[in-house]
Amino acid sequence: MNSNLILASASPRRKELLELLRIPFEVIKSDIEEIVDEKLHPGEVVQSLAQQKAASVASTNQDSFVIGSDTLVVYGDRMLGKPFNEDEAMKMLQMLSGKTHEVYTGVSIIRGDDVHSFYEKTSVTFFSLSNKEIADYVSTGEPMDKAGAYGIQGFGALLVKKIDGDYYSVVGLPVARIKRELLKMGFKL
Ligand SMILES: Cc1cn([C@H]2C[C@H](O)[C@@H](COP(=O)(O)OP(=O)(O)OP(=O)(O)O)O2)c(=O)[nH]c1=O
């Protein structure tokens, strides 16, 4: 018998990426408050938030495989989540302009007492961006629900010079690695 799969996420992008597995799954939004402890390593932060998201849904779905995920952009010692407003989005993008930053995505898969967590790190280098280019991008509205104030899969594609690592992890779900972790946990694909 194959137990069912649940994605503990409100993100339409994560849903689209998990559909690449070509198996049915349910989406249940987790309702944790995302608090980032800046003293922790970013890998630990995203893994812990992913685990909290998965656990909040797994507690009432003990027989299911529940996937939680969290993405943060890290530049130097700054961890960037979603911008609070357009002004903050501008500032984040000005900071990332012409530089290389890291995107950390943590994943936690929980089934009953079995917990598998990991994170992926991808380096992303931006072209040098003029203030006009940044303002034009922010006016699309795209940055507002995204860590680091950009979406590589959208108009944000035009900001990116190169990446090193898993593209899908930047978008929010390292789906190839997830497939492998599910198999290790005994999920029948
Ligand atoms: C850097 C980057 C982030 N993002 C997104 C992925 C995540 O959805 C979002 C970071 O916020 P998260 O808090 O990781 O996720 P979420 O609030 O969107 O969804 P949920 O917690 O319910 O799973 O930024 C992109 O879509 N493209 C990008 O290039």
TrEMBL record:
Residues carrying the site annotation Important for substrate specificity: R13, T71, Q153
Catalyzed reactions per annotation: dTTP + H2O = dTMP + diphosphate + H(+); UTP + H2O = UMP + diphosphate + H(+)
Active site (UniProt): D70
Top-rank taxon: Bacteria
Subcellular location: Cytoplasm
One Pfam family in the UniProt entry: Maf
E.C. designation(s): 3.6.1.9
The protein's required cofactors: a divalent metal cation
Record keywords: Cytoplasm, Hydrolase, Nucleotide metabolism
Name of the top EC class for this enzyme: hydrolase
Entry keyword Transferase: no
Family label: Belongs to the Maf family. YhdE subfamily.
Function: Nucleoside triphosphate pyrophosphatase that hydrolyzes dTTP and UTP. May have a dual role in cell division arrest and in preventing the incorporation of modified nucleotides into cellular nucleic acids.
UniProt name for this protein: dTTP/UTP pyrophosphatase
